[in-house]
Amino acid sequence: MKKILQVEGLSKSFLLHHAGKHINGCQKISFGLQEGEFLGLTGKSGAGKSTVLKCIYRTYLPQEGHIWFYSREFGLIDLARAGEREVVRLRQKEIGYVSQFLNVLPRTTAREIVELAVLDMGYEKYRAKQEAERILEHFELDRKLWDLYPYTFSGGEKLRLNLARAMVKKPPLLLLDEPTASLDNASKKLVRDLLLKLKKEGISMLGIFHDLEFMEGVCDRTMNIQGGTIMPERVGGSCHEGRLARPYQHLRQ
């Protein structure tokens, strides 16, 4: 099994200008992720879990460390130092991100939002239409909503649309920031079923979930983040501490 991601010594802090203080988001974080593996991040709110994901997605620019990603287009690339052009391309085709919140262009329907995600991958319009309909049906979004603007949707409907937009691409790396936070149990099952399917297809995932029962059987292992640093823990006996900080030597050679 090949590594797709290796984070080494990742640190990110924030300056509160009005108070003149630095807040540590994460400190010296190191871990690896294999192809087709699901790694779950656990910990209290404010522990630094989302900071790690946003540094990988490059919403945040890290102050220290490396984020080595094995890209299909660029080969081995350090996301901590990649240029804006590379970051945009990777977001379009190789790295997906799902949060609790849906941010989309105004006057874009639910169907169009998902179709545009497929078109980003380079597929034709007919394929985008087919894939959009397939995944909207999977998430049981009422067909009456498909051609409406999402600002009219409930919180749960927006979240299901957000999941559909990211998962329809089947990116090599999928980042999940509390994607089931406002879903009912039936909707959570739909998410779980699709995550398991994506795992079988070799998609690598890094996710934050506060519902530990949901994670059981989905995550291969977890890491607990406390005060911006990680403490490995076990899920189903499958968390191996020795795998968390191996360098990316086989890809750099």
TrEMBL record:
SUPFAM superfamilies: P-loop containing nucleoside triphosphate hydrolases. InterPro entries: AAA+_ATPase (IPR003593), ABC_transporter-like_ATP-bd (IPR003439), CP_lyase_PhnL (IPR012701), P-loop_NTPase (IPR027417). One of its GO terms (molecular function) is ATP binding. Residues 5-252 form the ABC transporter domain. PROSITE patterns: ABC_TRANSPORTER_2 (PS50893). The keyword ATP-binding applies. SMART domains: AAA. The keyword ATP-binding applies. NCBIfam families: CP_lyasePhnL. This is Phosphonate C-P lyase system protein PhnL. It comes from Thermanaerosceptrum fracticalcis. The gene is phnL.
